[in-house]
Amino acid sequence: LRGSKSFTAALPGETERNGHGLGYKSVSVGHLEAPPLSPSRLSLGRASSTATSTAAPEQGRPRDYLVLAIFSCFCPVWPINIVGLVFSIMSRNSGQQGDTDGARRLGRMARLLSIVSIVLGTIIIVLYISLSVRGNPPC
Question: InterPro entries of this UniProt entry (predicted)?
């Protein structure tokens, strides 16, 4: 026995009424009529130079500021920069799951905490160096 490679699917266009009010069309597996998933999947070839030079970065993917959060971990304000790193990782996970609003919100919080950590860390380092130099008078 050989199975058929055709099936019945609900497709727009020329359809037959099946008695239930739903339109169905019998098609083969190789002839499905579906729009492309995204403009980037239209062609596997190279894009034109005008499309690549004027194209903005992906608008749908929010930034997670992971590099900034990792850099802020070198500052001596560890509770703040660790929380910023956690928010950055949470932002990346939310973006991968498709929650762009949550990813943007978490990314902004990661950026804020990383900047605060870097600024406070710089202040602490400058104060430490200035107090240690001032505390040791020359002989």
Answer: CD225/Dispanin (IPR051423), CD225/Dispanin_fam (IPR007593)
